[in-house]
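tool_log.txt
---
The assistant was asked to compare two proteins side by side. It first ran the structure predictor on the initial sequence, then on the second. Raw inputs and outputs are pasted verbatim so the downstream comparison step can read them without reformatting.
(1)
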Amino acid sequence: MIKSTTRLIAAPLLAAAGLCLAAPAFAQQAEPGDIVVEGERTDRREVLRTTRDITQRPRSDGAPVPRFQREICPGVWGLAPENAQLVIDRIYDNAERADIQINAEEGCGANVWVIVVDDPAATYAQLRDDNDFLVRDLSDLDKRLVADQEGPVRAWNVTSTRNREGQVVASGAEVAESFAMASATNMQSANNPVTQMSRLNSAVRLDLEMSVMLIQRNALGEVDAFALADYATMRLLAHTEPPARENVSETVLTLFSPDAESAQPDRLTAFDRGYLRAVYDSSATRPYRLALRNVRRNMERELEMEIEAEQ
């Protein structure tokens, strides 16, 4: 398995791995002295609809949005080392831009995995049969939901429930088992160390402990390393899924959708960056309906930055 933190400057062609670098897009040239400013209005309802569509809904409206609370360390398997490094570096860059903490130490333990395989469905089934560490801590429901995913990608997040201070909160099954054990042994049962909650803050937070994406090798086609990394960024650093509806805000999450059009984004869009920033700017215990209400404002800020960069 390849995982590294060495930053590369040049981007070699990726034809050997079935990837190729797309030609860069250049801004339209203007006559000397002219100032060309191109803006884009954001539709509030469209942004809200897209936000809801790509967010894997929690089991209650008061649940917080899952996110990494510890530094991320990407790992890549199934690509040549130089190509894997491009993907790793791009994920690091995306994370830093969204103010997500990273672990840039050599040999860090990977908790964000991009795995290129011939058959994601078969590979996932084998991981389940082997009780592999990549799937071991998924709930039975989450395992079934991953198995039901269609297309060339299987992605999942392993989460833990913790209180505000980061202590693990026992699940319902664990609490029941603890009470049964305590009753049989006359010992004190485990309890949930939760002390505060309100309408604006949940009693717990949901930590992403590890995220994994299996992608089918022959689905890469003309996709370049940056596109693969940007798609992985949205699937792995947040609790998301590709949009099921049409007429949504542009997002890289449509890249590998079976019915995606040829003109779908192959880079993180302003919406994507606005979404990631909303997830990580908010309080870790803020209910998801409140935590994600700043996506549109963040998106407009990203669009303004893009315009300024082009001038």
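(2)
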Amino acid sequence: MVERLWAGWRIPASEAGADAALDVLEGRTLFEAVLDSGLPDAQTYIVWRGGLCFAVLNIYPYARGHLMVVPNRPVTALGDLTADEHSELWAAVRSATLAVAAAYQPHGINVGANLGRGSGAGVPDHLHVHVVPRFRGDTNFMTSVANVRVMPEALSDTWRQIVAAWPADGGA
């Protein structure tokens, strides 16, 4: 398992009980709890809301700018999406790649979905598509030797960068 080396920005969030504010209720997914929390987008790290889908930062990112595009409705497989959800999801994935590219100028971008627990899905009960900017050298000695990732940017800064870079056409 890869450990992460986090900065002090996490301490105020944990002391304020940010995790408690997003408690997952019985029968609801993590993404439903985030979407319906009533908290400001800057606090839940939602970077874009569409009619059927939304985009949110991964709070345990592989790299800065790592976000996920998620249908509002909890489905487990691509085949469970309606035609409209499918269209909005992939249009939003396109917008997410444009936003990440504009905000960070990465050397590449990974786009993918882990479908089911066997694939490594962290939230297997609610489909989500990862958009991860990649940089030459982002797998360095810390990951290789110490099994740790270093995040050079606070999530609140990442949120501001992605929101500012999100295409004007939204996810359409």
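---
observation on (2): The helical segments are 10-15, 18-21, 30-35, 41-44, 83-104, 141-146, 155-165. Confidence is low (pLDDT under 50) at residues 6-22.
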